[in-house]
Design a protein that fits this description.
This protein has helices at 13-21, 28-36, 40-53, 73-85, 110-113, 115-118, 141-150, 166-171, 187-190, 194-199, 213-231, 251-268, 270-297, 299-314, 319-330; strands spanning 61-66, 91-97, 123-129, 155-159, 176-181, 202-205, 239-242. It is built from 15 helices and 7 strands. Strands 3-2-4-1-5-6-7 form a 7-stranded parallel beta sheet, with helices on both faces. Helix 1 (13-21) packs across helix 3 (40-53) and helix 4 crosses helix 12 (251-268). With 336 residues, the chain is α/β, with parallel strands linked by helices. The chain has 3 domains: 8-55, Single alpha-helices involved in coiled-coils or other helix-helix interfaces, CATH 1.20.5; 57-268, P-loop containing nucleotide triphosphate hydrolases (Rossmann fold), CATH 3.40.50; 283-330, no CATH class. Helix content is 51%, strand content 12%.
Length: 336
């Protein structure tokens, strides 16, 4: 008996486009895998697909969600997602996991942690490894967001691992930026600077239940007071509220705060300006990434890279000298 091949047939650009627009679950996840691929042939097809779907994007509300470890990001996303799908929304979650240092794969398993939301027909969860990308967001999160929008999801939730540069990275690709906080402001209150004020749109103090309810309310009042004093008279400070994602308490108010902020930005014209800034930033981020990859893969650089790196690590060669030698190697012609 002839054994069937486990390999799936290749899809054309038309196949991908029609499948994404119809949200065909045999094709839509493959489109996301395609744009995440580093294979040159896949990248060319992915670029063509992104160009094709671009007119079908821009109608979703893009929400970035961040917060310190243990604040309950996944629980909040599931509770919020369930609230939205039960009110007629179609929700896509791009949940960025810290990558395994061995395999490069996701290690937290967001589909497992959001089991109830995963079972909803109008919800889709895509866990992606950050794979060492700075800012706690996957390298192709922006592209994945466009594919989700083209598939008809009208709310896209982007979860980060909440480390390093996550605030800036998420704000650079979303319409509304939600920061989750823990009860008991403490040192976190001291960390609210003007930079964060310029990024965050809504602050929610999570785990406002049981014995922590009073501490959560106190933290919320402290955040409101601090943010109002920083904002001054000519700025609208971020909305601040308390919630308990575990018990689905105030999740409706959380969504109302996000939706109100989105409408304010849209009506004032700030949302359109934000989108233009994001597209420009996206362009240069991609260019920086491609230049960095091209440098590392240049044959002349590959020939000296390991030696230079070892000498820098050993402290026998200044990094500035190593960098100059790499730039000089780039000017060498590539021979076949």
């Amino acid at each position: 008996m002839k054994r069937k091949s486990g390999r799936r047939p290749a899809l054309s650009l038309d196949d991908y486009y029609v499948g994404v627009r119809a949200r065909d679950m045999a094709i839509f996840p493959r489109a996301l895998t395609l744009i995440e691929s580093n294979h040159p042939d896949h990248q060319q097809l992915a670029e063509a697909l992104l160009t094709r779907v671009l007119p079908d994007t821009g109608q979703a509300i893009r929400i970035g969600i961040t917060g310190p470890p243990g604040v309950g990001k996944s629980t909040t996303i599931e509770s919020l997602g369930l609230h939205l799908v039960r009110n007629g929304r179609h929700v896509a979650v791009l949940a960025v996991d810290p990558s395994s240092g061995v395999s490069g794969g996701s290690i937290l398993g967001d589909k497992t942690r959001m089991a109830r939301l995963s079972a909803e027909p109008n919800a889709f969860i895509r866990p992606s490894p950050s794979a060492g990308t700075l800012g706690g967001v996957a390298r192709k999160t922006r592209e994945a967001m466009l594919i989700c929008e083209a598939a008809g999801f009208d709310v896209v939730l982007i979860e980060t691992v909440g480390v390093g540069q996550s605030e800036t990275m998420v704000a650079d690709m979303t319409d509304c930026f939600l920061a989750l906080m823990l009860p008991g402001a403490g040192d976190e209150l001291q960390g609210i600077k003007r930079g964060l004020l310029e990024l965050v749109d809504v602050i929610a103090v999570n785990k406002a239940d049981g014995d922590a309810a009073a501490a959560a309310e106190l933290a919320a009042r402290q955040y409101r007071s601090a943010l109002a004093s920083i904002a001054g008279h000519h700025e609208t400070p971020p909305a601040v509220l308390t919630c308990s994602a575990l018990y689905d308490h105030n999740i409706d108010q959380l969504w109302t705060a996000v939706a109100d902020r989105y409408e304010q930005l849209k009506t004032s014209g700030e949302l359109a300006k934000r989108h233009r800034r994001q597209r420009a930033h996206w362009l240069w981020t991609i260019l920086d990434d491609q230049i960095h990859r091209a440098i590392r893969e240049h044959p002349a650089v590959c020939a000296i890279r390991d030696d230079l790196e070892q000498r820098v690590l050993a402290g026998t060669l200044p990094p500035e000298v190593a960098a100059r030698q790499i730039l000089e190697a780039l000017q060498q012609p590539v021979t076949s």
